[in-house]
Amino acid sequence: MTPRRRSPLPPGWYGRNGIRAHVLARDHEQCQLRLPGCETKANEVHHTGAHDDHRLHLLVAACTRCHATITARDANTIRHAATRRPAQPHPGVTP
Questions:
Q1: Residue 69: exposed, middle, or buried by beta-carbon count in 10 A (0-12, 13-18, 19+)?
Q2: How is residue 45 annotated by DSSP?
Q3: Whole-angstrom Cα distance, residue 55 to residue 92?
Q4: What is the pLDDT of residues 50-61, one digit of tens each?
């Protein structure tokens, strides 16, 4: 599977001693998101902060289902905010 990231992952992300492996081990390979329908066993890492901020305290283990759900939710929030028009004053109200 090819990741659809807009920002690249840092060198050392993958591998037996990589950042990803460290986070999964730290969280005992248990999903930390625990959304409805959680698969419990984590095999992915979720960025709780900015997607290009790879500091360990901002990374949590996540199962595939929770990670996909929260990533889609974040994308929809961003997309919705970008298309929202500013509030217009009512034409019958004078300033």
A1: middle
A2: E
A3: 52
A4: 989 999 999 999
Q: Is residue 41 part of a domain?
A: yes
Task: State the Cα–Cα distance between residues 82 and 76, nearest whole angstrom.
Answer: 10
Mean pLDDT of 28-38: 97
Q: Is residue 60 part of a domain?
A: yes
DSSP annotation of 6 reads S
- 3, part of any domain: no
CA torsion through residues 26, 12, 38, 53, sign: positive
Is pLDDT at 3 greater than 70 in this prediction?
no
The domain tally of the chain equals 1
Asked whether residue 11 is assigned to any structural domain, the reply reads no
> Domain limits at 29?
19-80
Model confidence pLDDT, tens digit, residues 70-90: 999 988 887 777 676 777 777
Q: What is the pLDDT of residue 1?
A: 42
